[in-house]
Each structure stands twice: as C-alpha cells, then as structure tokens.
Specification:
The complex is a heterodimer of chains A (about 325) and B (about 575). Chain A has helices spanning about 5-25, 55-65, 80-85, 105-115, 140-150, 210-215, 275-285, 290-305, 320-325; strands at about 30, 40-50, 70-75, 90-95, 120-125, 130-135, 155, 160-165, 185-190, 195, 205-210, 230-235, 240, 245-250, 265-270, 315. Chain A is α/β, with parallel strands linked by helices. In chain A, strand 10 and strand 11 (about 205-210) form a beta hairpin. With about 575 residues, chain B is of the alpha/beta class. Classes of the chains: A alpha/beta (about 325), B alpha/beta (about 575).
C-alpha cells in the first residue's frame, strides 16, 4: 500500500463524511430519544420506506437479541410506518422525503447519524428485512458477542446476506404482521457463492445464491453483492462507502482470514422474497431509486414473469445457525 | 477456616461481589483488590454491598495494567493483608473478579486440608511452554520491558528490536531459575510468607519489575526457592486461545463446566445468569451431577483454536479466503478428472458410475452448459448449470462443487473443448486425480460428419489447447496425481490403467472390473490421421497409428466381456 493510495483513501473517507454532513439537513427529527442512550448500549441504524407489515416482528427479533436503541430514517413512508415507529419507546426517528439514491442509497444519512450518536458504541446497520444471526445467537445475547469482540480487539464483524425464499411461487402464502417471515421463506442456497477480492477497499465481493442463479445466470457480474459488515464498534471517523459492503478505513473490511484460518462471522437472513416482493419490485422499478438504475429490480421483474419460483431440488431448509456453520456459510472462528 | 481468597477485580463488580459473598459466607476470608481505575462510586458500592460480612477486607488499590508489575504489586498487597488479618488461613487462593467456583467450598476445604503442605501453582521452565505471546519466551527474562504492550505497542516492539540488535542481556539474579505458569495459584501460608518476607525481596522485585508479564513468572519462579511440595497445576480452570487471551464461559457451557474437575473457572461472562445461579451454591447436588471429564473442555477449546488458525480445508467463505498457497487444501476432498476417456469409450460415464458406485458428471466445464450427472439443472448446494455463472468464478465453482458433495467422490470429464481457466487450479491441487488420454479428442472429429477443412481447423485448435494443458500438468508446480497416456499407448492395454484409476478412487471396494467399457469404433482412424497430415497438420498427441493397421480391440470387445484372472 503506497502512501499515495493511503492518502486517496483518506480523502475518500473525508468526502463521505462531508457528504454525510451536508445531507444532515435532509433529516427532520420526528422523535429524538437519543438522550436515553447509555454507555455501552448497542445501537441499530435503519433506513426504511413503507415497511409497516414487517415492523412488529422486526422489533420482537432485535429486542430479544439485545439491541438497546433503534435509530431510524423513514424515507417518505405513507403506509403507517412512521406512526408505528413514533410510538416505540426505544426508537429515535428521523424523516426525509429526499432522494434515497442521491443520499447514496441511505448511506449518507446513516453515516451522519452514526457519526453523531454511535461513537464508542457497537452499531448494527441492517434493513428491515435482514435478520442478524451469529454463532451461539440462540444462547448468547448480542452483548456476549460484542464483549468478546472487544476483548479480542476486533472492531468489525462480517455477516453475509443469505437470501431466503419459500417453496412454490413467492406470493402463494401471504405474510401477516408479527409473523416470523422464515416460517414462509424457509429455504436458502447452501453452496453456490462466488468470491472475489475487491482490491480497492480490501473487502470480499460475494455474489451468488438464488438471485444469481435465477435472475443473473447470463450476466453474473451484475448479481447483487452479498458481503456485508453490519456490526462495527463505531468511531466518529469511520464511514460506510458502499451500502454496508465496505467501510473506511480499510482495516475494518478485513473480516476474513487470509492465512488459512477462519474468523468468526455471522449471517443476515434476508426475508426479501415474500408475497410483498412482486409489488415492491414493481414500485421500486417505477421510482428508480435503487442501485445501477434499479437494474436488479428490472431483472427480477423479467425473471419473475417466466419463472416465479426460486426453490429447486437442492434448496436447503433453514434450521439454525449451527447448520449454516456446518455448511460453511458462517464460522465460529475461535469463539467457543 | 483453612483457605482464604484474594480477588483481583476491575469490572462486573456486582458479579465479583456475589462470588465474594458466596465464599465469605461459607466461612472463607476474602481480600479484595479493586483496580484503581474503578470509579469511586463503583468502589463504594462494592464495599457497601459486602459491609455486612466480617471476613471481607479491601487492600490498598493499585492501578493495574495487563502485562506489567502492577498486577504482582496488587497481589502482594492483598496477600500481606490476608496473612496478617487472618492467622487461621493455611492456603491462599488467588482468584479474579470473573472467577466462579464450580464445586462447593467444603469440597475445596476438604481437598486442601488433606494436602496441608502442597502448593498448587503451575510452574514450568521457559523451554517447555508453547503459549507465549509475541514470540517472547526466554527473552522475557533477559530483556527489559519498560513500555506497555497494550498502549504503546510500537515503542514496545522497537525497544525489543533494539535490545536484540545490540545483543543486550539482563543478568538474572543468582539462584533464580525462571519459571512460567498460570497466574491463578493456591499457595500455603509458609510458602507465600517466605516469598513476601524474603530478605532479598527488594532485589527480586527490582528484577521482575522489568520482566515481561511478571504475574506469570514472579510467584512461579520464587516458589521454586521455598516450596516443600509443589503440585505444578492450577486449581483454576482457565483456557487460552491462540492470542493468549482467556476463553470466556457462557450459559451454554453449564453442562461442560459441571464435568470439570477444577474448583474454580475463569473467565465467566458477566451476563451468564444461569452459570452464576447454578454454581453459587454449596449444595453438592446442585453444583455437580456428572462424572468429571475435563478432556471435553480441552477438546472444545482446542477445536476452536484450530478452526481459527487452520480452518476447514477447501472452504472459501466470507471469513476464510486464503491467499494463494495458504489454502491448507485447495479443495476439501479428492476428486477425479478424466480427459479423453469419454471420447474413446462409448458410454464411459455410465460405465464409470457403475465401477465406482457414484454419479459421474459429463464435461463440467463445457462451454455451453455445465454437464452435471444426469443432465440436471442444479447440483448439490444449488449450483447452477449456467456456463456464464461458472466461468465468472471457476475456482469458486469447483471448490464449491467438491465442498457441497462432501462424502461423495466427484468424477468429471475434461478436455481441450472445455473452458480452460481451471487448469492451473486443478493441476496444483493434491486432491485432483487427473488421468489423460492425449489426442482422444480426435475420435469425435473422426466420427463426425463435418467438412474436412473444418475438422482440420478444429483439430489444430484442440491439439494446441491440449498441449498447453499438458504443459501445465507437467509443470514442476503441479501437485495433482497426474497420469498421461497417448491414445496409442493406452489402446495397447486399456484395462490395466483403468483398474489402477478405479482402485485409487475406491481402494477398499476391491472391485475387480468384470466388464470393460466399450471402445469406440476406430476402423479407419489411422487413415483419418494421415488425411490430417496430408492437409498440412501434424497430429502428434495421439501417438502412432499406422495407416491401414487399425486398432482391432474395438469392435471385438463389444461381444466379449473382459475378465481378469485371479
């Protein structure tokens, strides 16, 4: 790594932080309960839009996991999402009508909120349809993980996105508010992922899974990235540069071992493919607020017309984190 | 009252208080050293919480920093207080705030009473310990370490490097033989007081102050001077990972801890409610209900360290992406690659499937489509048959294929007509068994119905590709089990090489090949090669096929199964 490259990375990081600073004006506080955040609290940061039906289970799940406070940005919901969130005692809510795309898909907003509120805290950045699992998550709260990471001087924790899908057409079973989405979307792909190293940021670029094989079988480069680093012991000088796929400074992206060993890692179970998906997909296609001109949503729209089912004979039914560990999608590392 | 506890606490004061209360109310005096960094309110709360117990004392507070003398200093102060205040104490047990008793106090008391002169302290010479941090073992005692490793790592490292460069060595005080060991000990009053009241104590201190991690060596070394009876092990269960950091126990370790034969465990996660609820009890029925089996704990943590340092061979994933050469197994299991067999034999895949008893793939790297066994669209792990997906990351594809079908030998066809990017990966993988019949790609061309000029062009291309591939297989970097025959050579005696390959795939199968695969009809092949030559191409990979002298095995074998005599 030359000094020149380090310097450019530093500039890039500064630029992200300046962007975040400029975009702060787009956020209007609706309920700011951040005064209740205590030292050592674990915080979650979320951007969302029209996700009312998912919220009850989302909060059940993450409160049980041990998240102490949720800092959320509502991007112009009109389905009651905002009203629901305002009444949650552990939620601080901001709202904006501005462009999600022009805020780098929400990264600028969250970078700002993290800089302001997450300094010195463990911070988890997820979407409302992503459910964080980690080794021993059935017996140890998230505080056990972050304490262990602290004791091991580890500052960031990787969790790959695992797309979950139902058997049969996506819209066969309607999702009810409060329901565990993985009662419906029970299946995942266990071993069709590709990994490339991204030399610019030092992170891994993981693609594959059902989306790659169903929607991008002729154009695999454009398949969505599944690598994520959602859990970080935040410092005000850190910044996400591309969704939660990569951070700066680059050392935070080294959540993998290069010398044959395995570092501990988790997974984000992705409950995107429910009956709500086709409608969402059509709406996002119309709004054009997503990555690469919503290429992904165009592919889904086309793919879903000829083949509405993601399930195949080799789909794996989800049981628990130990199963993902054995299959090699995540690892306990040296946490025992 | 035969054992007293010294507790060094700095965090999770409520848990430390609960443990101290447990010991004190069971009749064992407790001296607590609270780190000076503990806030005033926190400290006062701790004192307050234990105020009703008359056998709890608090020693003078020191600011403790890991790896420095301060830890020994704190221990000495607490030990002096213990020996002075509680004359009935015969054994002093050093514990931390994150220790948890695993067995009832009366069991520990009985155990120590029956060994009144024994000091339980792990003490081994530096030659015998593998677990030192930062590669410093003997040098701990011969260099000076005035800088903090935690806070000023660079200065620390630079100073060590400087001393090494200058060849500096500190003299070790006469009579002292450096020993190391776990810092959690249980010493008798006699030994401990002898160490503390030694006339040379100042001199030893001056020396140990600049030793690296003196809490693991001060008592461990000096005890050798005074103890009458050392049992070199710690009564505290404490496991360390590869970085020298203690493993932490959680609620899900409850059953495991019950099977430990140690009296105290360290470290316990402060949030482990179930552990604290279960073990802070003097009822033997509650705390212990299983046969001791400490090996289980050992295995658990040894496995964790192994996973962190060596990982699972052949696995590439989000937190294991080894650099080239560090894979510790490029793939996770042996597999077989057949080149030219499917061209030379009819229905070779079916035959091979029967012979080795598993599914056999076609050309996995076929340019149009991945030919999974049975023509399936998806394979184990939901691997797709899309050639584009495969070629986007061929190594991921092959490694995933082998990983996904662990327990089932993978066999597939390969040839010069396939995507070649994977060649180097296979050739350098010791798990690959690659068998090549060179030039066999000419057989389909020979039997095809194309225009001869097209065939000639195609033949030249395939020959060029196969030559390059063979260069890779023959390179000094190749690690695969490679066997190469020219087609002519192979045809002289096809059964022997086949038997060798099959035996290697299924060694215990002891399957004798009773049926030979059917050879393709090669009548006129020699003439075909001659025609290629006449057109200016030089087909050399298939070996020598004189014109008119057609290989005769083919058509006759069809009716006569081959039997190997016993």
């Amino acid at each position: 790594m030359s000094i020149w490259q380090s310097y450019r990375m530093r500039l890039r990081r500064r630029r992200s932080l300046i962007r975040a600073f400029r975009k702060r004006r787009e956020l209007r506080p609706v309920a700011n309960r951040t005064a209740e955040i205590r030292r050592g609290d674990i915080l979650a940061f979320i951007t969302l839009r029209n996700e009312r039906v998912r919220l009850p289970y989302f909060f059940d799940y993450y409160r049980a996991l041990g998240i102490d406070h949720f800092l959320m940005v509502d991007n112009g919901s009109d389905d009651g999402t905002r009203e629901f969130l305002v009444n949650q005692p552990d939620v601080s809510l901001w709202t904006t009508e501005k462009s999600y795309k022009r805020a780098q898909f929400g990264v600028d907003w969250l970078n700002w909120l993290q800089r302001k509120y997450a300094h010195g805290h463990w911070s988890l950045v997820v979407d409302v349809d992503e459910f964080f699992i980690y080794p021993f998550c059935d017996t140890r709260p998230i505080g056990a993980l972050t304490d262990w990471l602290d004791a091991s001087s580890i500052k960031s924790f990787g969790a790959m996105l695992v797309d979950m899908y139902p058997r049969g057409p996506l819209d066969a079973v309607p999702y009810r508010a409060g329901q565990d989405p993985f009662e419906i979307a029970q299946y995942f792909d266990s071993g069709n992922y590709t990994i490339h190293k991204n030399h610019r940021y030092g992170n891994l670029w993981i693609q594959g899974g059902p989306r790659a094989r169903a929607f991008f079988r002729d154009d695999p480069q454009r398949a969505p990235a599944l690598n994520k680093i959602p859990l970080v012991k935040w410092h005000r000088s850190y910044a996400y540069v591309s969704s939660t796929h990569a951070l700066l400074p680059r050392g935070l992206n080294l959540v993998y071992d290069e010398w044959g060993g395995e570092k501990a890692s988790g997974a984000l179970l992705h409950a995107k493919f429910l009956d709500t998906f086709p409608a969402k997909s059509a709406e996002e296609l119309r709004r054009r607020e997503h990555y690469a001109n919503s290429h992904e949503y165009r592919a889904y729209d086309a793919g879903l017309k000829d083949q509405p089912e993601l399930w195949c004979k080799w789909s794996e039914k989800y049981i628990n984190w130990r199963q993902l560990e054995i299959l090699g999608l995540m690892s306990k590392g040296n946490w025992a | 009252m035969s054992v007293g506890f010294i507790m060094l606490v700095h965090t999770a004061l409520d848990r430390a208080a609960a443990v101290a209360r447990h010991w004190a109310s069971s009749g064992c005096p407790v001296v607590i050293h609270a780190d000076k960094r503990v806030s005033r309110a926190g400290y006062e709360g701790l004192v307050e919480a234990l105020a009703d117990l008359d056998n709890v004392r608090f020693s003078t507070r020191v600011r403790v920093e890991w790896g420095t003398w301060s830890l020994v200093d704190a221990t000495q102060r607490a030990a002096e207080l213990m020996l002075g205040e509680f004359p009935g104490v015969r054994h002093v047990y050093l514990a931390s705030g994150s220790c948890l008793p695993l067995r009832p106090v009366q069991e520990l008391v009985a155990y120590l009473d029956s060994r009144p002169d024994t000091d339980f302290i792990e003490t081994v010479t530096t030659m015998d310990v593998p677990w030192t941090v930062g590669g410093l073992d003997q040098e701990r005692f011969t260099l000076r370490f005035p800088f903090s490793w935690k806070r000023r790592r660079r200065v620390f490292d630079a100073y060590v490097a400087l001393q090494r460069r200058l060849g500096y060595r500190r003299p070790i005080p006469p009579g002292v033989v450096p020993h190391l060991g776990s810092q959690w000990w249980c010493l008798t009053r006699q030994t401990l007081s002898a160490i503390l009241e030694d006339p040379d104590r100042r001199e030893y201190e001056r020396y140990f102050r600049l030793v690296w991690i003196p809490d693991e060596s001060y008592f461990q070394t000096l005890v050798r001077l005074y103890s009458r009876n050392i049992e070199s092990r710690s009564l505290t269960l404490s496991k360390f990972d590869f970085q020298g950091k203690p493993h932490i126990f959680y609620d899900d370790h409850l059953q495991l801890l019950r099977r430990s034969d140690c009296f105290v465990a360290r470290k316990i996660w402060p949030g482990a409610d179930r552990l604290y609820d279960s073990f802070l009890s003097n009822d033997p029925a509650v705390t212990k209900n299983a046969e001791p089996s400490p090996g289980k704990i050992d295995r658990l943590f040894a496995k964790a360290v192994d996973r962190r340092t060596r990982g699972r061979p052949g696995l590439y994933m989000q937190s294991r992406f080894p650099r080239e050469g560090w894979e510790n197994g490029k793939t996770c299991a042996p597999y077989s690659v057949f080149e030219g067999f499917a061209e030379l034999f009819e229905n070779f895949e079916t035959w091979l499937g029967k012979a080795v008893g598993s599914r056999v793939h076609g050309h996995l790297f076929h340019p149009e489509r991945v030919q999974f066994a049975g023509g399936e669209r998806f394979h184990n792990g939901a691997l797709s048959d899309s050639a584009a997906l495969r070629d986007y990351a061929p190594k991921s594809f092959l490694a995933s294929l082998i990983w996904n079908s662990r327990g089932e030998r993978q066999c597939f066809q390969f040839g010069p007509g396939d995507a070649q990017d994977i060649s180097w990966f296979m050739a350098t993988d010791p798990n690959a068994q690659i068998s090549v019949i060179t030039g066999a790609w000419a057989v389909p061309l020979f039997r095809s119905n194309g225009n001869f000029s097209d065939i000639r062009r195609r033949a030249a291309l395939l020959q060029k590709i196969e030559s390059e591939h063979l260069d890779i297989l023959r390179s000094p970097h190749a690690r695969a089990r490679v066997r190469i025959w020219s087609m002519a050579e192979f045809l002289e005696n096809p059964m022997e090489p086949l038997q060798t390959i099959i035996d290697e795939i299924a060694p215990r199968g002891q399957r004798r090949l009773t049926e030979a695969p059917v050879l393709a009809d090669l009548r006129g092949f020699g003439q075909f090669l001659q025609n290629l030559k006449n057109q200016g191409m030089q087909p050399h990979l298939m070996g020598d096929f004189p014109v008119g002298d057609d290989p005769e095995i083919g058509p006759r074998r069809r009716r006569r199964p081959y039997l190997v005599r016993k």
